[in-house]
Amino acid sequence: xxxxIIVGAQWGDEGKGKVVDIITEKADLVVRFQGGNNxxxxxxxxxxxxxxxxxxxxxxHPGKTGVIANGVVVDPDVLLEEIDALNARGVKVSPDxxxxxxxxxxxxxxxxxxxxxxxGAKGEDKIGTTGRGIGPAYEDKAARSGLRMGxxxxxxxxxxxAAAAMREKIHLLKxxxxxxxxxLDEIMEKARLxxxxxxxxxxxxxxxxxxxxxxxxxxxxxxAQGVLLDIDHGxxxxxxxxxxxxxxxxxxxxxxxxxxxxxxxxxKAYSTRVGAGPFPTELSGGPGDFLRKQGAExxxxxxxxxxxxxxxxxxxxxxxxxxxxxxxAVTKLDVLSGLSELKIATHYMLDDEKIDFIPADVHDFExxxxxxxTWPGFFNDISRARKLEDLPDSARRYLERLAELCGAPLGxxxxxxxxEQTIMLHEYF
Length: 429
Ligand code: IMP
Prior knowledge:
Blueprint: E1 3-8, H1 16-23, E2 29-32, E3 41-45, E4 48-52, E5 65-68, E6 73-74, H2 76-88, E7 98-101, E8 105-106, H3 109-122, H4 134-142, H5 155-176, H6 184-198, E9 202-203, H7 205-214, E10 219-222, H8 248-254, E11 263-268, E12 271-273, H9 287-294, E13 307-309, E14 311-312, H10 313-323, E15 327-331, E16 339-350, E17 353-355, H11 362-367, E18 369-378, H12 393-406, E19 410-414, E20 422-424
Parallel strand pairs: 1-10, 1-11, 2-5, 2-10, 5-7, 6-8, 7-9, 11-15, 14-16, 15-19
Antiparallel strand pairs: 3-4, 12-13, 16-17, 16-18, 19-20
């Protein structure tokens, strides 16, 4: 295997940062292919905590190249902040080790303002977006009125394009939402800075990836969010505006489908969701509060408390199928320690029908009641386990059952935030 896609099999926040970071040891290139700074990947390296939003997690390893491919939407202010913060902590981020696609769309200040204004106006019906302008930036991409990173090369045409794109937004913001946004002059001031600082990072990212493949280098594709947030296959409209499924690498980077060699689905040992939308196994109080506290389930990007619930095998099986996952990477198993019983949803009841799939209609999905299997829990501290045999029987049985229900073997189990706190069951690369 010389390339691997890592995707989130639930609603995001499965702990991708840590897993990507571990697998990066043997990768040469780490590529982000969708999403933007709505993602927040937290990693602990040598006891130091890093929260990355746009820069591929692999950058924490010297000698690796990070690529932000065309499918990503880039907020240049956030990216610069992140580059500066990493450099200040001694993690070298330079144009030698970070490549940004010229085709990646820019999140403009008016995208952020529109995202916030729309959510504010929706009141009870809001999606609960991260407020980072992700949706409006992808809208402009589809409407063919977006600005791309490569547009920074010519500031005159950048100004003309921005002026044209802004007209409609300013009208909406001012008249419909009674909100303010940056002026064209203010945007151009930013654009000059973006150009000065980010131009050296711009590249034809698809060709960078293709060349790496031709040279036999190992490539890791780092997904953001999770399959249930996919704009086509998630619980629309409670989704993000990109495609977190594995197939998205084909368009988000420009890779022929038959070149994909491996897919790993990340599964948190329980379920969490931020923002609104159906969540059949959600728990209010009791074990839900336990999971939130033990798992520190608060958003990396927004700090919002995450909704918590039991593991949902219907959701994970759906993601395994959709993404063609070869392995499961189960994260945060240690968080379950202290619960006397563990539940896994194996099916749903939709009215009188027992089903083992996610209904396409979100209203049907909302009505699904989980059918659970109950498994014995465990109380031991498992953070020092490095082999499956080190785990209590009940934890092992829980993992085995998950793999069986979802139709993919285990590739890795994470038992704590540090790199070392990992049970590796498969060699990648
Ligand atoms: P947006 O991506 O900011 O437009 O938000 C749309 C939905 O996706 C909201 O429910 C967000 O909470 C959710 N979302 C976006 N990014 C992430 C992520 O990285 N982890 C978990 N949820 C996310």
